[in-house]
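Entry: Proteasome endopeptidase complex
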Amino acid sequence: MPEAEAAVVTGGGSHAAGPADYERFITLFSPEGRLCQLDYAFNAVKLAGITSVGVRGDDSVYVLTHRKEDKLHDLTTVTHLFAITDRIGLLATGMPGDGRALAHEARNAAAEFRFKWGYEMSPRMLAQWIADRAQIRTQHAQIRPYGVVSMIFGIDEEKGTPELFTCDPAGQFFGHKAASAGLKDREVMNFLEERMKSNPSLSSDSTKALAKLALKHVLQGDFYAREFELGFIKKGDPTVTLHPVKFMRTRRNCILLLMWNLSQRYFPYEVGRKAAEEEISVELCHRKSPSTLMISPFNDT
């Protein structure tokens, strides 16, 4: 018997589905068993041109991402890191607008969960919620998938352990010891697999160093620290800390101010700003040459 042909219903009737139809309709499988619009969503993650990495240690989780710089942008308005609750953070890699919308939905979901049940949503619960929402978006033609891969990191209140998850546009979510997303995710994962194949014990400092080293491995050349964002949470201090970077240049050195970005969902702006000013850490970064001011964000000294 001849194979049944897929049909597409239009205003004038139905016709056999062609290649253009498989690309147009998110709910229509191609003969190869793929959803073309999902493939394009994964491509959108890479086309954003940034790479992110996350590493889970014995008592902490660190995530690090590279962000594109534009001389006319106010860097305080450009971020891929979001505090969902005090104990859960989200790093969105891909289309910035989609990442911001996803973070807003996740905050609402976490707040509703706490209001309904009286305790905080765990990182695993939030990752599953995001994945379920993403999967629903693959079934309805009137909405499109988000072009982001999200990393959810935090401390599980019940277990008291750090957790790291990724969620993708296809509705999948996975727990990780280490993860990467974005333009050079495969190269980062190869590096991390080699470093972690012996299942090493990672302290907080070792976890941070490995995340920095993995990103440095694939990003060649010198970079300004303001081109990166760092987020972490520790078991002993289970509060998500986000470090966007702000620069002040002086004649003889660079002062790197790592500002504590408190979630405005739980703190008024005035209170958050005052608390942030008290948490400033200052590092002096000297010139590499008389004519160039360069800062390596991977230098712990």
